[in-house]
Write a structure and sequence with these properties.
Helix 1 (49-59) packs antiparallel against helix 2, helix 2 (65-74) packs across helix 14 (452-468) and helix 5 packs antiparallel against helix 6. The radius of gyration is 21 Å and the shape is globular. Residues 1-31 have low confidence and may be disordered. The relative contact order is 0.12. 38% of the residues lie in helices and 11% in strands. The chain has a single domain (7-473), classed as Glycosyltransferase. The protein is of the alpha+beta class. A hairpin with a 3-residue loop joins strand 8 and strand 9. Strands 1-16-15-14 form a four-stranded antiparallel β-sheet.
């Protein structure tokens, strides 16, 4: 059963397939009258005093009972349901499932714990848990930098794909953003905690592998060490061409055979992921120079970042007949361009959220206007239930709450943010959680009941609004 693509007809909490979400605290009624959808305290996988304090603080600011209920359910969902902690070789070690699939995506796990970084100074246990994610990432990267998702042990068998599968690996889709997320979390952890215990020789070796993979996937000799084929009726579930993606002209950008959605790219130079890589390489250079004292490796990171950035400026900008200068979503270096956006992060709309472009950059603003206007590209949909970015992964008429959240988080327009909040509140289908996607005309038709990344992101969004525009929480 593929829960990523199954439409769920009924509201509720228990997941379908790949494990079960812990039973909810049906007896725990909130003062608002809504029933808490969090697991009972004894069933929660991880608890943090700092996070619980923040939940109380923020919900007091939210005047709308349903919105407060959604925040209370969503913000701690990663902690409540997806965390397994242990100690390995004397260091914290953390396994984070994505939700209804018992596997750890490099991208998802990084994004799931990201909103908790500011609270580590108040909770050493929380800090150790996130340090464990940084450590686990380094371990996985050294197994296979091309893999996007891993198991918690080496005994389980992953997908039966035509590629080089190794123990621990759940899926081996090469996604440039996965390794960027590894760096992003490490850098964020360091900046919020000032702790450098994660950044030992083992971690540094993983970072060296990451940069070597980035350089290899520039494919300056037209070759790649990566090859992937899957027997499937869904063309975007396998790699294009002979298994390394569509042909490219080596212009300095880094190939990504799959997108953050785990869908295959049309053209391998995925522009938002390359912007993300530029930022990540500079963050990595800062860590290894300051913490590890490796000036030569830091210079290598910065040189590569500059090369990719130069190629982006030269090749990623498209002169659209109606929209003017905008960023393409994907290119091939030969002139091929794909002018869409996708709901997963990094997307073009999400780039200011990640810090890879400024929200007021004229090129970004023009691109955003093009992407968020109905009729400009096939993956923006509007219906009775809502409107927003879709994508081939769940279907062109399936709107992603994640896309709505990120639209609001990258906007300074009060009316736009209010509209996004209203849509999120109206489309959870009574479940009290964010889903992967919902049908544009009927929000009760949705995919993935238990998708922790979307829940964490929603919580992060509400905290941002509570600090910057608290009046909107009415």
């Amino acid at each position: 059963m593929n829960t990523r693509r199954e439409f769920i007809k009924n509201a509720g909490i228990a997941s379908l397939g790949f494990g079960l979400m812990p039973s909810v605290a049906k007896s725990n009624f909130l003062a608002t009258g809504f029933v808490s959808q969090r697991p009972p305290l004894a069933d929660r996988r991880f608890t943090s005093s700092a996070i619980e304090e923040k939940i109380v603080e923020v919900t007091k600011k939210i005047k709308n009972p349903e919105l407060a209920w959604l925040f209370e359910n969503c913000f701690p969902n990663t902690l409540d349901t997806t965390i397994t902690t242990t100690i390995k070789d004397g260091k914290p070690d953390t396994y984070v499932i994505t939700g209804d699939i018992d596997a750890m995506w490099l991208r998802d796990s990084s994004a799931q714990v990201w909103p908790y970084l500011p609270f580590m100074k108040k909770d050493k246990k929380l800090q150790d848990m996130i340090a464990g994610v940084v450590n686990r990432h380094a371990f996985y990267v050294q197994i296979d930098p091309y893999a996007n998702a891993f198991f918690n042990d080496d005994k389980r068998e992953g997908y039966k794909d035509k590629t080089t599968m190794k123990p621990w690996v759940h899926e081996r889709k090469w996604e440039l953003d996965s390794l960027c997320y590894v760096i992003r979390l490490a850098h964020g952890y360091w900046k919020h905690s000032n702790d450098t215990s994660c950044f030992d020789g083992n971690w540094l070796n993983a970072m060296i592998i990451i940069v070597a993979t980035f350089k290899s996937e520039q494919r300056k000799d037209f070759k790649s060490a990566y090859n992937f084929k899957r027997t499937t009726s869904r063309p975007f579930d396998t790699a294009a061409g002979t298994g390394s993606g569509a042909p490219i002209n080596p212009i300095g950008l880094i190939c990504s055979v799959f997108r953050p959605s785990d869908d295959g790219t049309v053209f391998p130079f995925l522009i938002p992921s390359n912007y993300f890589a530029v930022l990540s390489l500079r963050q990595l250079a800062e860590i290894v120079s300051t913490v590890n004292g490796d000036k030569a490796f830091a210079t290598e990171c910065l040189t590569l970042a500059t090369e990719v950035e130069k190629a982006l400026k030269e090749y990623a900008i498209v002169e659209h007949k109606k929209a003017g200068k905008i960023l393409a979503y994907e290119i091939d270096g030969y002139g091929g361009q794909y002018l869409i956006d996708d709901s997963n992060i990094p997307s073009l709309v999400s780039m200011p959220y990640l810090g890879s472009i400024g929200a007021n950059d004229p090129l970004y603003k023009n691109t955003r206007k093009f992407l968020l206007t109905e009729g400009n590209h096939p993956y923006y949909s509007k219906g009775k239930a809502g409107e927003g970015t879709t994508g081939p992964h769940a279907g062109k008429d399936m709107i992603w709450p994640m896309g709505i959240i990120i639209r609001a988080m990258t906007s300074d327009n009060t009316d736009e943010i209010k509209q996004c909040i209203a849509m999120l509140k109206a489309t959870h289908a009574g479940a009290g959680f964010m889903h992967e996607a919902f049908y544009k005309d009927d929000a009760t038709k949705f995919s993935r009941k238990w998708f922790a990344w979307a829940n964490s992101l929603f919580g992060e969004f509400i905290i941002k609004i509570s600090e910057e525009k608290p009046a909107l929480l009415g």
